[in-house]
Amino acid sequence: MAKNSIKWTKKDLLGLEELSVEEITMILDTAKSFKEVSERAVKKVPALRGKTIAHLFLEPSTRTRISFELAAKRLSADTIGVSGAGSSILKGETLKDTAKNIEAMKVDMIIVRHASSGAPHVLSWFVSAGVLNAGDGAHEHPTQALLDMFTIREKKGKLAGLNVSIIGDIAHSRVARSNIWGLTKLGAHVTVCGPKTLIPVEIERMGCHVTYDLKEAVRTADVINVLRIQLERQKKGLFPTIREYIMKYGITEDVLTKYAKKDILIMHPGPVNRGIEISQEVADGPYSVILEQVTNGVAIRMAVMFLLAQYKAGK
Ligand code: CP
């Protein structure tokens, strides 16, 4: 297990905005130890034996839900899953009441995904269980950014000084926001790129550079993180047609051949819209680490659950 001189002091993991450089580094270092567990024949350690973790997913998810569930099981925790469709939320129960009822059954941690920004923060006020944000509206997706940072550090050997271009639908992206907070804190230079209508006004105030020019974003990048066009969250008319978006901002082999560095790293948090924000060839090509991101996600989620459990044990 990683040896860290600082102690974990937070009940919840709500976002990277509120984490220090030391806390982010501690999660990344702890995940490095846990990655090895998933490579063993017996993929289990007793670190969270006796703990119970509830997965409250009130918005669709494949990667994050499965990854959190696997991470909890590999730490030997007991898990329960609650989905919007199968819960009393459909009968009008509030999120607070749902969470209080889950906690009344002596659950230690609640992993929550919610369509509304701030929902995990509100939940954390009402329950003494640890709350982990698995994605809230367009606000934050901290474990996604942590696994992205872990993957970059693993592949490039560092984060400080690297140029990371995040390309696509920045406006609707919690992944972009968490990546900007985390990467800039650890010394990377972040550029966001997309159509003007998909870049929030004054996003530079988060410490990133903005360009609407794909060539510039690709030329300067050591890492490109391609984001999905979130058609389900968009109002109509943010760009003329999908075809036009592909022509101006699609990451294709041709774009990489013409403008990218030879050792470029291509990332995507998923789900991927193949042939829209990224071509089939690039998604499955030699620079892509998309599936390695997914692998690393389990280690990151093991690390954050392990650290939050330390906080509770130390109370
Ligand atoms: N990256 C991500 O959050 O994927 P899911 O929506 O499938 O969890």
Verbal overview:
- The structure is a single chain.
- The protein contains eleven helices and nine strands.
- The protein has 315 residues and is α/β, with parallel strands linked by helices.
- It has two domains: 21-141 and 295-310, Aspartate/ornithine carbamoyltransferase (Rossmann fold), CATH 3.40.50.1370; 142-293, 3-Layer(aba) Sandwich (Rossmann fold), CATH 3.40.50.
- The strands form two sheets. The protein has a five-stranded parallel beta sheet with strand order 7-6-5-8-9.
- Strand 1 (52-57), helix 2 (63-74) and strand 2 form a beta-alpha-beta unit.
- The longest helix has 24 residues, at 290-313.
- It is globular, with a radius of gyration of 19 Å.
- The protein starts with 20 loop residues before the first helix and ends with a helix.
- The model has no long low-confidence stretch (mean pLDDT 93).
- It binds phosphoric acid mono(formamide)ester (CP).
- Phosphoric acid mono(formamide)ester binds at residues 61-64, 135, 141, 144, 269-271.
Q: What are the defining features of this structure?
A:
315 residues, alpha/beta, Rossmann fold, 9 strands, globular, binds phosphoric acid mono(formamide)ester
Question: Proportion of β residues?
Answer: 5-15%
Gyration radius over CA: 19 Å
What do we call the CATH topology of the largest domain?
Rossmann fold
Quick one: how many beta strands? 9
